[in-house]
Amino acid sequence: MRFIVLTIIFSVLFVTQTLAISSINLDVIKEAQDYGNLRNKDSLQEFLLPWISYEEKAEKLNGMTERSYLYTSYLLIATDAREKSLNGHDIAILDSEEVLENYSGLLSFSTVLFGEKEDFAKDASVIVKQDNNVIKAYQMMIPAEGEKVHLDKGQTIFNAQCYFYFFEKDIVPDLPIILSVRTTDQKEHNFYFDLEKIK
């Protein structure tokens, strides 16, 4: 058993594959775990701030602003560590390795969209634009119906929490990208990420 544990730890130390923006090694894993542990009392919005992009045409930033979060390997580890810390569990290297394994080779986005019809996002098309390249989403999780949101003036709109996954090998890790979502209502929702500046 000890040999297996040492083998796993050894493999984490020498990971050479690029995982979600930057290379992951033991120091980066520990740093991400510390971020999750030390900032576990922050609101989720504060915690996720370095990984957020607001829709490029947003007039103001509030709870009704469309936004997308880029879940890098660093953020996945930090989020796992935050949850474990909040629940009083130990934060282990092996847990972080398992998180990395589950998302290995993928770039993941959690995106909040708003529309006027219940099914406005149902058949959305999703791409990443980078330089002159257009990359299609590998997998999408889009609700068939958005949740009702009541605004102050009696207006009702719908909120869709979506998840988009891309193959990381298709994306250059040090160039900016635009996540572009065209919803069924023919609206385009764009989110800019400068990959070089994101952990």
Low-confidence stretches: 1-20
Total of helices: 5
Structural class: alpha+beta
The string of secondary-structure elements, in order, is: HEEHHEEHHEEEEEEEE
Overall number of strands: 12
- Which value, in Å, is the CA radius of gyration? 18 Å
Give the termini separation.
33 Å
Beta strand %: 25-35%
Helical residues, percent: 25-40%
Description:
With 199 residues, the chain is α+β, with helices and mostly antiparallel strands. Helices cover 27% and strands 32% of the residues. The protein has five helices and twelve strands. The protein has helices at 2-13, 26-38, 44-48, 73-86, 93-102, and strands at residues 18-19, 22-23, 52-54, 67-71, 106-115, 125-130, 133-136, 139-141, 147-150, 156-167, 177-182, 188-193. The strands form three sheets. Strands 3, 4, 5, 8, 9 and 10 form a six-stranded antiparallel beta sheet that branches. A four-stranded antiparallel beta sheet has the order 7-6-11-12, with no helix packed on it. A hairpin with a 5-residue loop joins strand 11 and strand 12. Helix 2 (26-38) packs across helix 4 (73-86) and helix 4 packs across helix 5 (93-102). The longest helix is centred in the middle third of the chain and has 14 residues, at 73-86. The relative contact order is 0.18. The model is unreliable at 1-20 (pLDDT under 50).
